[in-house]
Design brief:
The protein has 8 helices and 4 strands, in the order αααααααββαββ. It is an alpha+beta fold. It has 2 domains: 2-204, Up-down Bundle (Alpha-lytic protease prodomain-like), CATH 1.20.1510; 211-297, 2-Layer Sandwich (Alpha-Beta Plaits), CATH 3.30.70. The chain has a 4-stranded mixed sheet with strand order 3-2-1-4, with helices on one face. It is elongated. Residues 210-287 form the Cation efflux protein cytoplasmic domain.
């Protein structure tokens, strides 16, 4: 629970950071009138919206299981990430519209240097906060925080492109380039939004853990199942920070229930030491149910 409170605080802080960055980037747009800087500011509006969605998702996912949700509420984080992806796509379409009209009727910049300075400061803040979210989001296995961090990373990358484009417009005097840069920003945002939704759908569809984590799980079971014959039908799925693991454990027919239970307790304790949010279900079977060569051997 303390970890979940820490994650919730990070998500709440993201809202404050998002509002600060939005204010700086919107000021940069107002000072210059640049369509490209407008696109960057509009993405920051989405940053605030997604930060709010991430905060609500983290709070809801920490709610303990209840009668209607016996497996917990962790999947709400994936729903949050999907919503973020949709919002990103909407922002990209709005930017494309603005870029089109800007291309049809380009205008020269006003006060480009102060505007660029404001945008660069905002981008540096975003980059620093992105690093924090990505680090702790992965450490605490929070899809909502990781999704928020990836969105901020896309914002930082596009901001670099925007600044470069605005500088080129100032140096060359070719104002249509401003709208072209904005359109490129929109296309990049569309790609990030699609990638985010694709990853989140995998979580909603009960995607299994990675091969690396699966190998660790098999190793722990094999090491701790001394006295058993084998483990088979190993299945995994993830929901936010929680990893669900279930398998069948084959034991000698003469083994007592108490002995089999002790083996299960030992395996569960070892798995939870490796991954604290693991939920383990073990079905004990007699030796005639063994699938030699098809299961996890006991070391």
């Amino acid at each position: 629970m303390p970890k979940m409170k820490f994650v919730a605080k990070l998500a709440l802080a993201s809202i404050a950071v998002g509002l600060l960055v939005l204010g700086l980037k919107w000021a940069a747009y107002l000072v210059t009138g640049s369509v490209a800087l407008y696109s960057d500011a509009l993405e920051s509006v989405i940053n605030v919206a997604t930060a709010i969605a991430a905060f609500l998702a983290v709070r809801l996912s920490a709610v303990p299981p209840d009668a209607n949700h016996p497996y917990g509420h962790q999947k709400v984080e994936y729903l949050s990430a999907v919503v973020e992806g949709v919002l990103i796509v909407v922002a990209a379409l709005a930017i494309l519209r603005k870029a089109y009209f800007g291309l049809m009727d380009p205008h020269p910049f006003t006060a480009p240097v102060p505007g660029l300075a404001l945008n660069i400061v905002a981008s540096l803040i975003n980059a620093a906060w992105c690093f924090v979210l990505l680090r702790y989001g992965r450490r605490h296995r929070s899809p909502a925080l990781v999704a928020d961090a990836k969105h901020l990373l896309s914002d930082v990358i596009t901001s670099v492109g925007v600044v470069a484009g605005v500088v080129l417009v100032v140096l060359t005097g070719w104002t249509p380039l401003d709208s072209i840069v904005a359109a490129l920003v929109a296309l990049n945002i569309l790609w990030w939004g699609w990638s985010l939704m694709r990853e989140s759908v995998g979580g909603l569809m009960d995607e299994a853990v990675s091969n690396e984590i699966l190998s660790d799980i098999r190793l722990v079971i094999s090491r701790e199942a001394e006295g058993a014959i084998e483990a088979h039908d190993l299945r995994t799925r993830t929901a936010g920070p929680t990893v669900f693991i279930d398998f069948h454990l084959v034991v000698p027919g003469a083994m007592s229930v108490e002995e089999a239970h002790d083996i299960c307790d030992r395996i569960e304790a070892a798995l939870k030491e490796e991954m604290s949010h693991a939920v383990i279900t073990i079905h004990v079977e007699p030796e005639d149910k063994a699938k030699m060569g098809a299961g996890v051997p006991v070391l």
